[in-house]
User: Which sequence fits this backbone?
């Protein structure tokens, strides 16, 4: 599980690897993607988010694409 901290209006982007095999990806996605709210820090106005996804799914902080 990948854990990220996000503040108000910050985003997470889920994308698929360019070289992902469509059949393997479809099989993996049938199991689903799990997103869990791990903690909330009211004093920092942030939340900890855990994401569990198949290996072919990339999980990126949106600011890395800017």
Assistant:
């Amino acid at each position: 599980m990948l854990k990220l901290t996000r503040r108000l209006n910050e985003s997470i982007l889920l994308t698929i690897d360019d070289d992902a095999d469509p059949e393997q990806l479809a099989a993996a996605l049938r199991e689903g993607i799990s997103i869990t709210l791990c903690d909330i820090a009211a004093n920092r106005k942030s939340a900890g988010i855990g994401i569990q996804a198949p290996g072919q799914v990339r999980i990126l902080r949106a600011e890395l694409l800017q």
Summary: Strands lie at 2-7, 12-16, 34-41, 46-52, 57-61. The longest strand covers residues 34-41. Residues 22-30 form the longest helix (9 residues). The two ends are 25 Å apart (CA to CA).
